[in-house]
């Protein structure tokens, strides 16, 4: 029970109850509460800043997210605790608890770092995506406005063209009517002129016949007088 209490006590402090200097080999573990079954010398050993600097042989590898390797000499720690008067099982349990706390803390830190990286990556990609979406919306809006303007101009030009076509049709109709009236008038004038010429021709023939008759009568009268 004392071992379990010590393990729980170690696990309650989490990553804030100790600090590790990875790569330098120096560590500090704080926050342990003295248990009636753990000698004070063992507690001082656990809190000693020079404890982990004496580890030379690695008996366990602690992996954080499978990317980093942290070397911990658990065997030396167990032997040191036993040398301070702790039973072998309690020393191993405390060492296992410390290793488990370190594993959990490093895993939490790694997950936190990965989460921040993913968040920054997502933010990095979401900003251009948002800008692209905004540009796409602006382009669609400009395209709609341009299409509306083109439709408006096309409708205006079509209306003007239809009006111009109708005006030209009316002018052609008026010109056709004027041409028809002029043609009819010319035809009437021509017919009138022909009739006048015919009348003049009849008068000329009549005058010619009268003149010939008169000349003939005068000639007969002269001949009769001479004879």
TrEMBL record:
<keyword id="KW-0175">Coiled coil</keyword>
<dbReference type="GO" id="GO:0005739">
    <property type="term" value="C:mitochondrion"/>
</dbReference>
<keyword id="KW-0496">Mitochondrion</keyword>
<dbReference type="GO" id="GO:0016020">
    <property type="term" value="C:membrane"/>
</dbReference>
<feature type="transmembrane region" description="Helical">
    <location>
        <begin position="204"/>
        <end position="226"/>
    </location>
</feature>
<dbReference type="InterPro" id="IPR024461">
    <property type="entry name" value="CCDC90-like"/>
</dbReference>
<dbReference type="Pfam" id="PF07798">
    <property type="entry name" value="CCDC90-like"/>
</dbReference>
<protein>
    <recommendedName>
        <fullName>DUF1640 domain-containing protein</fullName>
    </recommendedName>
</protein>
<keyword id="KW-1133">Transmembrane helix</keyword>
<keyword id="KW-0472">Membrane</keyword>
<keyword id="KW-0812">Transmembrane</keyword>
